Amino acid sequence: MQKAMTMRITQITIVVKDQAASLEFFTSKVGFEKKTDVTPPGSYRWVTVGPKGQDLELALWQSGSPDPNGWSKDWKPGGPPMVLWVDDCRKAFAEMKAKGVRFVQEPYEVPWGTSATFADPDGNMFSLHQPPSNTGRS
User: Fold this and answer.
1) 57 part of a folded domain
2) Under a CB-based contact definition with an 8 Å cutoff, are residues 114 and 10 in contact?
3) Do 55 and 92 belong to one domain?
4) N or C: which end of the chain has fewer CB within 10 A?
């Protein structure tokens, strides 16, 4: 019997207007760490950030970056929110708001937990989500 191929999602790209400003936002205000920051000679800057202790990275793709293949020419900031699971939504909301994060939805209760939604400086949306204690998920 053949062994199944192993796959993991390790990176998601979001489009930003200014990589430096986005890097500052995610590391100083959201609490992510910088994972990668390289600029090969004659190429575009590649910057990634992510939650501490996790493999998942957000690639901060600067809109208009040189792209020899043209595959990113129509990419723009924005879109539906990505979900970030937190232990305490109200606490995370308060800490991030105090650091200047702009929330478009304050914490609210729903049957599947507590959520609050913020936007990065480019309008990319992120939802903080605390599952209810009876889900068994952590």
Assistant:
1) yes
2) no
3) no
4) N
How many CB atoms neighbour CB 123 within 10 A?
Answer: 15
Which pTM value belongs to this model?
0.83
CA distance 117 to 110: 14
Whether residues 82 and 59 share a domain: the answer is no
The edge-to-edge listing of strands for the beta sheet with 113-119 is 82-85, 125-130, 113-119, 102-110
Structure tokens at 128: 């903080």
Question: Which residue, of 25, 42, 66, is where some domain finishes?
Answer: 66
Statement to judge: residues 88 and 47 lie in one domain: no
Q: Which residues span the domain enclosing 59?
A: 10-66
Q: What is the pLDDT along the chain (138 residues), one digit of tens a residue?
A: 778 877 788 899 999 999 999 999 999 999 999 999 999 888 889 999 999 999 999 999 999 888 777 888 888 888 788 999 999 999 999 999 999 999 999 999 988 899 999 999 999 999 999 999 865 555
- Residue of 62, 82, 74 whose CA lies nearest to 20: 62
